[in-house]
Amino acid sequence: MSRRMVPAGSNRAGPQQASAVPRVFFVHDIGATFVQKDLALLRTFCEVTPLLFRGPRDYFRLIKGLLRCDIVYCWFALDFAAVAVVLAKFTGRGSIVASGGWDVARFKEIGYGRLLRRRGRIAARIACSIADLVLAFSDWSAERVREVAPTSRVRRAYLGVDLDTFWPGPKEDLVLCVANINRENIERKGLRTFVRAASSVPEAKFLLIGRWWDEAADELRDIAPSNVTLTGWLAPGDLREVFSRAKVYCQASYTEGFGLAVAEAMASGCVPVVCRTGALPEVVGETGLYVPYGDESSLAIAIREALRSPHGSEARDRVRRFFPEEGRREELRVAIEDVRRNRTRAAASFAPTGPAAVHRVKR
Q1: Is 102 in contact with 112 (CB distance < 8 Å)?
Q2: Closest alpha carbon to 321 in 161, 165, 140, 168
Q3: In angstroms, rounded to a whole number, what is the distance separating the alpha carbons of residues 279 and 293?
């Protein structure tokens, strides 16, 4: 798409006149499913240029891309987002930060959260305070954003699930948990508790699905009973097929900013078993069972009850009401429009009105 020339007398530091289709510079540092979904949704109504930010060497690409956009959209309030929103402000671009997870968390008891480090607190405060809009993916996440940046313009925007992709099938006595397997997640996502609880539910098969990042997978295999399988990573189609067959989805986490895998499993007719922590109660509501974090006996009892539950359809209905993918798309569309409109008004208010008239006095 060709770019329009900046008219004479306008602010040269500001963005070029807005095109009919918003130009969004999409910056992220991970390829997580929820990040890729936002990228795909934005592309349905914006001209999007993505940047996978891998480190300091990418700051030049960040600056270059920002100068060619109307709005910069950053996933997580990290260092690159702080730099991006500051540059956006000084050059008259709009800025949006999607936030509300590890980037604004601080849990000393499990060593989790970037706010445990001073640098993380500074970056999150700058990114969330200066951004035109912060999209938090749950009410719980929005509160974490306000704690680190009280003046932030934060709005809740739930993540979404494609209900045409995730669909219930014939159910089996199958219990799932999806998580990357590493030292951090053994603690935060309660993976050790999940594996140990399986020994008390021998009639069911347990699958722990996710990439193995370190030796944590060896520890889990060593303590796992025979009815537990660590599958490693599954392709999206295979994961959806397993979801469709499972009766129960377990997320025994210490905290979650949202829990997209929980919502996807619910859309597939799984009965959720979770801890009453973080945003999980927002996602699950009254459609699942709750257990204390780290209590494998309570988890086993709840899983057995969930295996007998006929309420998987209620879990799917909750996703349809509160977390449909089209709802996330609409939130993004409104966010882009609001930021773009506000930036246009701000630019107009500072635009020069032309040279003042000079009145000559006759002598």
Answers
A1: yes
A2: 161
A3: 14
Answer yes or no: are the C-beta atoms of 228 and 206 closer than 8 Å. yes
Task: Spell out the long-range contacts of 228-235 with Cβ–Cβ below 8 A and sequence spacing 24 or more.
Answer: 228/195, 228/198, 229/205, 230/181, 231/207, 233/209, 234/209
> Could you tell me the two tokens for 339?
């930021």
Q: Any idea what DSSP says for residue 56?
A: G
Which tens digit of pLDDT belongs to each residue from 34-77? 999 999 999 999 999 999 999 999 999 999 999 999 999 999 99
For the chain, give every domain's residue range.
23-160+324-347, 172-321
Please check whether the two domains, 23-160+324-347 and 172-321, share a CATH topology.
yes
Long-range pairs of 110-115 with CB within 8 A, sequence gap ≥ 24: 110/187, 110/188, 110/254, 111/184, 111/187, 112/184, 112/187, 112/188, 112/254, 112/255, 114/78, 115/148
Q: Are 104 and 144 in contact (CB under 8 A)?
A: yes
Alpha-carbon distance of 94 to 113, in angstroms, equals 27
**Res 61: pLDDT:** 97
Q: How far is CA 83 from CA 38, 56, 62, 87, 123, in A?
A: 21, 11, 9, 6, 9
For residue 208 the two structure tokens come to 């722990």
Residue 39 near residue 48, CB atoms below 8 Å: yes
pLDDT > 80? residue 1: no
Burial label, 284 (beta-carbon count in 10 A; 0-12, 13-18, 19+): buried
In the predicted structure, residue 331 carries a pLDDT above the cut 70? yes
Helix or strand (DSSP H, E) at 28: strand 23-28
Separation between Cα atoms, residue 93 and residue 221, nearest integer Å = 50
* Top CATH class, 23-160+324-347: alpha beta
Q: Which CATH architecture has domain 172-321?
A: 3-Layer(aba) Sandwich (3.40)
